[in-house]
User: What shape does this take?
Amino acid sequence: MKVNKIGKLITIIALVLAIAGCSNAKESNPQAGDSKSGGELRVAFNAQPPTMDPLMTTAAATKYAGRHIFESLMTLNSKYQPEPMLAESFEKSEDGKTYTFHLRKGIKFHNGKEMTAEDVVASMDRWKQKSGTAKTLGEISFAAKGNDTVLLQLKAPSAAALTILATQTQFAAVMPKEVIEAAKETGVSEIIGTGPFKFVEWKKDQYIHLTKYNEYKAVNAPADGLAGKKEALVADLYFDIVTNASTRETGLQTGQYDIAAALPHDSYERLKGTSNVKVITETNVALSIYFNKKQGVFTDVKERKAVNAALDADKILMAAFSNKELYKLNYQYMPHDFWVTEAGKQEYNQKDPEKAKRFLQEAGYNGQEIRLATTQDYPYVYNAAVVIKEQLEQVGMKVKLDVSDFASYSTKREDPTKWDMLVVSDLFRATPGELGILQPQNYGWTDDPKIASSLQAINAAASPAEMKKLWDELHGYIWDYLPGVKLANFAFFDATTDKVQGYKPFDGMIFWNTKVLK
Assistant: This one.
């Protein structure tokens, strides 16, 4: 076939530009990757992760950075349903107690070693020991069958098993067996996974630097939530630690950062109207009140019912977020489609001061001071608390706002002698057993036999239909027992420059399939 002169010229120019781009990237960073990698992406990250080991913390900052490095057998699609990731396929036994996972072949860790079933079993054994979510499956065991097959053995069948394996709370990161075996009590000492980016450097209080992993093997399926195809479209990914929100916003507008994470809600309208900025929202957080049920006035359910009857969620949320685009009134503790239920709906957002006063009288409330702990480090938490205080005082409760910095607030909420009520934001969860508000060990201390047994029954349900029926019953009971009060779902919001393409968060930040036009 003949190629005309114009075609030859275009080809030559394209090759020259590609070589120049590759050369520049490698000069600035020898590990930068090939010519398709597209420079760097700088993210103004709002928090310093306590660790890069996802099993050692429930901190969102660790999860968001770590998901680019580590992968798991199963992951979640955009509907919070489990899909294979490092597993190619799986089968379930007739009795529902055994899952057989066939691993994808040719998957290499960032140190060049090929992943085997032994690596997966070592990783999963550590996950079941360290993760609170894993413990909701009860007694389980993992075993290797050859190099490419892993068996999961359950003591009892569980319709939730695959979702729990895919959950993102202390997610089941697969690492090399030798890294697992060398791990200390504080976590692993080497950050090695199979993801589209590999770890380069973490300078505390400055940045976390990842680089494209050129031997990454993507799933051959459309991207969907955390599932499907993942591709590193930039050579270098920097999570710049910028805890000051104004600095993140200013840096975005000057071009210092390509993406600014978790911006203040009162900046939403301003940034939405800025010509070179795109505002990105994801409604994946619940705003709730937690009651201290270990000691104090809220050990009495009638006191809790008085609060619930008095609240006007509309006013609380407008004060917290200032824009209706950023929140949605919602009483569902599990707002995903599968779990949605009508149970408990009548108890939500009652706005009934007279009913609240009757409950207070029945409880024998006589003016005891109620400590509502909050922090101004998260303005929406503080602003919500101010309105809650006003609404409760209108029905005769004596409420004191106990304001502290976030570090002190975090310490205080673990001590039942220090508070009576909290305003809390919780990321959405994939299964009811992960809900912090229902846990006896979590602040709030929901130590109720019916809730505990119902969660166990949900995890042990033999079918999705049975699991859903049990959740309907429990959800109605939750709104009667009132471990707290669910107020709404809301969005944190990020912003990007108009040069960023493909950024689509799910359950938080995702930077694969994202590029920057420089």
